[in-house]
Sequence to fold (258 residues):
Amino acid sequence: MGTVISLAFPRDPAPGGHLVDDEFAAATAVVESLFQELDHTFSLYRPDSEANRLARGELLLQNASAAMRTLYADALDWRRRTEGAFTPKRPDGVVDLSGLVKGHAISEAGTSLLALGLHHWCLNAGGDVLVSGSPLPGSTQPGSTPPTSKAWQAGIVDPADRRALVAGYALGAGRRHAALATSGSAERGHHIWRQRGAAEEFVQVSVAAADVVTADVLATAIVAGGAPMLDRAADGWDISVLAVTAEGELLATPGFRS
Fold:
């Protein structure tokens, strides 16, 4: 998928306990295996991938794997829910599921980590983050009612200065959002197609949501659809949004202002 993946665990995953080497090896192996498997099918960076065979017209969608057809169906549903701001096709008509694959891969990896009995971790793939539990299990935030553990802190990079942060956001530890995704042109250049008639209003959009697929899709949709899509997303989903305009101004929903 052309991106870097990192997996972080607390120093003490449980009171008095430590993540043993075998558990750490199993966790990294399952994440690496899952991303490699999805990369082999969906990556447009691999000439031999199924996605590239579709793009070159060597394979018809109806003859593609069940995984490809299922993800394409999911993308069509997101196109309907975002009124066309998110789309599974490039302007030339070629199927391109890149906007959905990374979030799907992170989500599947998170499910696998939980199945291994690991409940405190932070998984980051190219800046899109999914967390579980707390970086300090058993801790209590001062003044929190009901008591909550310390949250993971996700930073959002300034698109005008990649060495600086424009904001941070607390994830996990009982809070309503466990995922944060960012889309825009600062890291990879212009790779998001604008919805027809939409102005180029935002250079970067970050969305926090309960799940990483929703966060990733809506971040892309808001960049593509501009302010009208931002309004629809903020009204229709339980999310927080931070958008950086082309002029460098910040637009934030209440979750990012608290």
